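Worked problem 6 (solution included).
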Amino acid sequence: MTGPHTDLVPGELLVAHARVRARDLGRRLGSALVDRQLYEELQRFLDEVGFPACDALDRLASSSDRELRKRLHQVMGIEAQ
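Solution. The predicted structure is:
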């Protein structure tokens, strides 16, 4: 893998992946509120990716403020300033 996510540890990759999937699911929910398949996919996402990503984010929060800011910028794909 290349790009801003190359230096991420597995938990940080999980957070970045969850962010992308959550945006996609949210966009789809906005256009199809009554779609059982989408709701089932959302439940799988929460169980398999979303909740573990929240746990990984909690672990990231134990870093120093400077390190946390740096890592979150990488996870979110934000250029360092």
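Discussion: The helical segments are 10-31, 36-60, 65-76.
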